[in-house]
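Moderator note: this is an archived Q&A kept for reference. The question asked for a predicted structure of one protein chain; the sequence and the answer are reproduced below.
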Amino acid sequence: MVTITKKEFEQITDFIKINYGVYLKEEKITLLTTRLQNVLLQAGFDNFTDYYHYVVTDKTGNAVATLINQTTTNHTFFMREADHFYYLRDTVLPYLARSVGSKDLRIWCAASSSGEEPYTVAMVIDEFFGREKFFWDTRVLATDISGKVLEIAKKGIYHKDRIALLPPAWRLNYFNQIDDDHYTVIERLKNEVIFRRFNLMDQVFPFKKKFQVIFCRNVMIYFDHETKISLARKLYDMLEEGGYLFIGHSESLNKDAARFRYIKPAIYRK
């Protein structure tokens, strides 16, 4: 097993924090070492210093993508923190249906992982608008830092356990069964979600229009306080007046520093 020195750990974790916002405390040293063992061995490195220099000098972006994939957790499932989706259906979408004259719905899932969240949002939208959906642009933007999970999301194939919490009608209407254990999202729903790779630590957010709703759930738990506030302010600026921000239930915002108005646990409004 390749061991890591304190200096090597600090080099790698400082690089990750500065460029991607992910803050790994010193007690995560064993976790980082374990997760990167196969990466080092497959690349032919016998120490973390050489691996670090390889990551920071690799022009293809593949090395850093692998590093991020190994150091973050993409654990999710359909209807995770389900009350958010009910609130979207019962409160947010009725408000937007009344107030958006352009019929241009702009919802951003900013840490979409393997696609469960944006596909669930798309199902809620489809059910809410029904036949009226024809007159709306309802596509959902879904971004993530990990190209690996985005490829999974685009394929839209999930084990039956991942869709178990969905209403039976949704499983029937929005999925096709592949085999005894796997289901795939129907093409009509796939077309409603636009997947893009994006780093929330980028200084400039390249979006032409502001959003009415942003989901940024269970990502700020990896950030320190300063990084969290900085991101919250950028998300605030990317929302239209009256827009909604959904974060994870294990997360919270300092409403004074972040400027958001608290609505209920993990839901804020501009």
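Archived answer notes: The mean pLDDT is 90.
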